[in-house]
Amino acid sequence: MLLYHRYLHIKKGIDMNLSDDCKCLDGKNIESADFARMSEADKEDYILCHFNSLLRECKRCNTGEEREIVISAFKFANSAHKGMTRKTGEPYIIHPIEVAKIIAGEIGFGAKAVAAALLHDVVEDTDYTLEDIESVFGEKIAYLVKGLTKLEELNSEVDKKVDSISLQAENFRSLIFTISEDIRVVYLKIADRLHNMRTLASMPKASQLRSAAEVLDIYAPLAHRLGLYLIKSELEDLAFKYRDEKKYNEIADLIKDRFDNRERIIRRHALQIEKRLLDTKFIKNDDFEVSGRSKSIYSIAQKMERQGVDFDHIYDKLALRIVFEPDSEIPDQIYLQCWNLAGVIESMYTPIAGRFRNWIKNPKPNGYRAIHTTVTTKTGHKLEIQIRTKEMDDIAEKGISSHWNYKSGKPMIKELEDLVNQVRDEMTNPETDPVKFLDRFKIDIKTPEILTFTPKGERIILKNGASPLDFAFKIHSTVGLSAIAAKVDKKVVALNTKLKWGDHR
Asked: Rounded distance, CA 300 to CA 94, Å?
């Protein structure tokens, strides 16, 4: 408690200037030598500029009370980490601030999760305790910090014993089990790992390779399962760069060589599509945006390997996205509007057979919904066109976390509820050997899933390769135990038949 009283004294004595006109390298690193030459006043200004950037990113910190929670957490953490630096040479507090920016801006959580991100290394790296955190910030924030602290303690043990696979496995099991208590701990850990990967260049080669392997085995697939597409893609690219730098550079050079003018290509077609949509009036309120992106380096490498093709035979390297506010809130009307927009696009270009995907009628297990079609332009470029509403885009960008109801503690869409229930099932019968748990989880989270339906149209998500017997057990154990035959799409099949995406039983 002496530390808590010391904090109260510090809190009263700090007068922060949080003006918007201060200058810093917002979100970027400076070489360590530059920090060595900085005065203390310049360092403080640099820190405050980063924190200013966080406040601007925190769209869900709207009230005075919410902003005060975040500001208080920053003051506490900044004082606790005073004088500490990272391998990059930056003041240590920059890392919690950057993690908090990911939580606020890229994932979209509110003040309590942002405060926990700012405080997440305080208990592990300073003299403050969880009791101090709870005394100042309350039970909820302390719980989030506690979840991360447990994981960091296990990480520390792994670092001391590089060959300790068991400790590493226990770390991952602890991470996954936190899903059933408060899923925000997992998002915080993913954000923490993302910023560590962004600054991994300052670490020894062995640490780089170990971190890259963990990201590709666990964190990127988990981000994908949670619907964090952008974070998942960045994690994969960063990990791939350290795991296979030669291959990474080869594909990066091919992208630059083939699509040196890709921004111009994307911009030209975006303008053409925008004009056609305005002319056709399929979006009556004209509230839409057309934007573009390039496929990630890692996903291109994976497709080349998986399909056994060269770079030029990957068709969706360039993509355009149409995001709009629908004219109606009725699901069938929204679907019809998306379908009509796809028709407009395919009237402008030449559709590629077999490349139409309807993720609205049959959403992906992580909640992703959109219509995709791949087309060929008159100049021979292949473009993937993605069509989705603003709500669909929110889920695609920030994941199904944006549909989590924290007051009830329950997810607002079924895909997240299924994931939480899956982890709770694991907890009722946990593996005694954490290594076996980790091995099974690596396989489970990377195994593709298929979507099937009951006769009444209820969606049943199964692992790729599942059979009608797996379907029966998914309904209920008594159904599985009593099953002797099955019907798929009105045809009688054996219980060991391999099911496909969209099958109706």
From this structure: 33
